[in-house]
Amino acid sequence: MSLPLAGVRVLDLTRALAGPFATMTLADLGCEVVKVEPAGGDMTRGWGPFDADGESLYFQSTNRGKRSIAIDLRDARGRALLHDMALRADVLVENFRPGVLHELGLDYPALSARNPGLIVASISGYGRGGPYEDWPGFDQIAQGMSGLMSLNGDAATGPLRVGIPIGDLVAGLWLTIGVVAALAERARTGRGRLVETSLLGGLTGLMTFQAQRYLSLGEVPAAQGNDHPLICPYGVFEAADGPFNIAAATEAMWQTLCRVLDRPELLENPDYADNAARMRNRGALREALCEAMRDRTRAELTRTLIAAGVPAGPILRMDEVFTDPHVLASGLVAEIARAGRAPLRQAAMPVRFGPDAAPDQAVPPPALGGDTRAVLAGFGFDADAVGALLAAGVVRAPAGGTRT
């Protein structure tokens, strides 16, 4: 079964995380993604931890489904080659510092003049048009400047970052949405366009009701820790064997929770008469609920509460997540075949296109320059031209040949 974006050729000039995550998502959607790397490779090839073969797990986590070509962009011939490839691509994705694309002669006005259907997609730290547009973009800085960190943690901890580079990843997803929209438009008009997002904009775009509280009412939301900012009881509670979540989001769920825990007196207590009262007395209510749950396990409570109609679930570690029977059965762990090696297990692309679609059709992350010959041939360069580029050191390929 072909994937929705099969036949779309993407030239991937990105490094680190935000851009590579976007282009991996495009590859998962069916695009032919050509990762253009400098002679020394993407910087993340040197970032640990490393697997038993010395390959970066960081690099592997965001580069499946791609092919790699190594080009010396310090050489004018390498830059000319990249320009020629851009004229034969559908999408070019980059996350250089502002101005670099123009220095390479690959900015959107220059390329679209010769390839009107080209979509150029860019991720920056802060976006264009403001006083920070030239600042370098780093995930944790963006987490702080977007307001996200001010909402995480509590009074004891102070602001907390999210445990993954959420600013990078969200920017990658926003960019993917923009590229897909531009492809849909191009199918109608025949013309591409410039698509841009930023780490800062990607996170502020997620603030939803917390942003609306300030923008409409002038309220500045405070960090709530693991409690829902507007609903109680909704958050983390302690069972006999550790923490788990309960989401009693409605009055009926609150009443059911009290009955399941055999605490009818809580329903009669005026301190908990409605959601507003429960929010005011949240600390005391949490203590009472945890006391009622201290002799029951997370698994027992989860099953009992869900059966009664109250959403609940355990807080799992990575080892528990990726051995969970539902995670495995629903295809959320990909196993990517590798020649002569054990399959590469990864968090899978979570979008499916029908019940009969294969959950994973990806190829493993590429070796540096492992596809140089095949990529150039696919872009229309004949064997003599490829040989000349290799001989001159403009492009690199491993001695063992091209991956098949």
TrEMBL record:
Gene Ontology MF annotations: CoA-transferase activity
Family matches, as PANTHER family: SUCCINATE--HYDROXYMETHYLGLUTARATE COA-TRANSFERASE (PTHR48207)
Pfam families: CoA_transf_3
Keyword Chloroplast among UniProt keywords: no
Protein's name according to its UniProt entry: L-carnitine dehydratase/bile acid-inducible protein F
Lineage: Bacteria, Pseudomonadati, Pseudomonadota, Alphaproteobacteria, Acetobacterales
Domain of life from the UniProt record: Bacteria
Keyword Iron-sulfur: no
Keyword line: Transferase
InterPro entries tied to this protein: CoA-transferase_III_domain, CoA-Trfase_fam_III, CoA-Trfase_III_dom3_sf, CoA-Trfase_III_dom_1_sf
Coiled coil (UniProt feature): none
